[in-house]
Design goal:
Layout (H helix, E strand, L loop, with lengths): L2 H15 L2 H20 L8 H24 L3 H15 L8 H15 L7 H11 L6 H12 L1
Helix pairs in contact: 1-2, 2-3, 2-4, 3-4, 5-6, 5-7, 6-7
Length: 149
């Protein structure tokens, strides 16, 4: 079952349950998928990796918005954003724990022979490619920075 089919099935269930917050998040995902499909030239649609990147982007947007709302003291606006992020995260593959990410980053550092911050780009490139969809880029960056400093 493709991501688009899963989203449509969840949308129908949310409509039946009259869950407006979930429905809003699912509509955003559906819109993003349709937009991405029109932008790609491939007739097959999006690959699983592209779908995961799209979903991660949507989750990141919601979390960033919620953070800004919280900083401005607008909890009433932050809460729906976080709820939408949770709904969208259901479609992402299982996320890795920080310990698992650290172990992978250490392997990559050993493979590349990275010795300091000047090698961060090389390590980040490999890490984001290897951990795509399984870990947040910000978390990867923090761990790489910690290991190389």
């Amino acid at each position: 079952m493709s991501l688009q089919e899963k989203v449509m099935a969840e949308m129908k269930a949310a409509m039946r349950a009259k869950d407006s917050a979930k429905l809003e998040a699912l509509r955003a995902v559906k819109g993003a998928i349709l937009l991405a499909n029109t932008e790609t030239s491939s007739k097959d649609g999006l690959t699983e990796e592209e779908e995961n990147k799209l979903l991660q982007k949507l989750v990141k947007q919601r979390k960033d918005s919620a953070q800004i709302y919280k900083e401005q003291g607008r909890e009433d606006l932050a809460e729906p954003e976080l709820q939408q992020a949770e709904v969208i995260e259901q479609f992402l593959p299982e996320q890795m724990s920080e310990e698992e990410i650290e172990a992978e980053v250490e392997k990559i550092i050993a493979e590349t022979g990275a010795s300091g911050m000047q090698d961060m780009g090389k390590v980040m490139g490999m890490a984001t490619g290897k951990l795509a969809g399984k870990a947040d880029g910000k978390t990867i960056s923090t761990i790489v920075r910690k290991k190389l400093s």
